Amino acid sequence: MRSTVTQNAISVRFLCGHAVTRSEDAAAVRAYRGQRGADLLLGDLPFARDQGVRLIVRLGGVSPADYLDEEACLVLDRVHLELAPFFALADEFRPLIVDGPVWGIRFLDEPHDPAGYPRGFAVDPLELGEAYALILKHLGPVRVASTAPPRYPAQVPGAGLAFGQCIHGQPFDAYEDATAFRREQSQLAHDHELLCIASLNANTNPVDNLTFFRSYRVMCALSAVDFVTAWQWPQGHHPEASFAAGLADPGPAVQAEVAALPAVCTR
């Protein structure tokens, strides 16, 4: 049976240091890498638990190239080496993961279409499943996933999540709009016993903050979506406001949309 959550989690706060406001509906996505990352995560998890914040944690480097050999096969020893700082602290992490704030672990970015490889190449799903098994062996039962739409993780043993990501102004072939895309993607994820993360790019959208958060609210309201977040590239690469800057927009209409988000996420 598909795992379920009683409420959707919504990333209306990011874990930047410890700047998180307590909320039963608050969630965050944050990256951790190396020994410094492992130590930081060990401090963040109790704080997130105490603040009632759910987390998707990104462990290690996200580029598939970090783990593929010259024949484009995923090398498990490289995965183990990259994640060794987290595995070394597994006894301390496991209680905070199994009964704590970790909603999921993200490992690898877009293995179905990795950057730097020919179009049409994908990381072997069975090889990625071995990497997931390694993570589960050390850190215990937790949802593990890579940033990929449902059809790919449906082939990966041990995958627990699928991603549906989109950007304003970039229509999808065969879809009337982004909402139709997310609705189908989330249903497809559930058909394969995966939970669905819906995400809207926060700083490449050629739209005003009101339009962005209105679209975000519609995304949150989809009944088959299990976790909602926003993603963005580093500031300076794009002129549009960051997600945090959008949240701080003092406009009454924008703030009304932001204030409506927790309610539409409640299930």
Helix content: 25-40%
Overall tally of structural domains: 1
Give the C-level CATH assignment: Alpha Beta
List low-confidence stretches.
1-24
First-to-last CA distance:
19 Å
The SSE order reads EEHEHHEHEEHEHEHH
Structural class: alpha/beta
| CATH domain topology | TIM Barrel
Count of DSSP-assigned helices = 8
Layout of secondary structure:
Blueprint: E1 9-10, E2 27-32, H1 34-51, E3 54-59, H2 76-88, H3 90-98, E4 102-109, H4 125-139, E5 144-147, E6 161-166, H5 178-191, E7 195-201, H6 209-221, E8 227-231, H7 243-247, H8 252-265
Parallel strand pairs: 1-8, 2-3, 3-4, 4-5, 6-7, 7-8
Helix pairs in contact: 1-2, 1-3, 2-4, 6-8
Quick recap:
The protein has 267 residues and is an alpha/beta fold. The chain has helices at residues 34-51, 76-88, 90-98, 125-139, 178-191, 209-221, 243-247, 252-265, and strands at residues 9-10, 27-32, 54-59, 102-109, 144-147, 161-166, 195-201, 227-231.
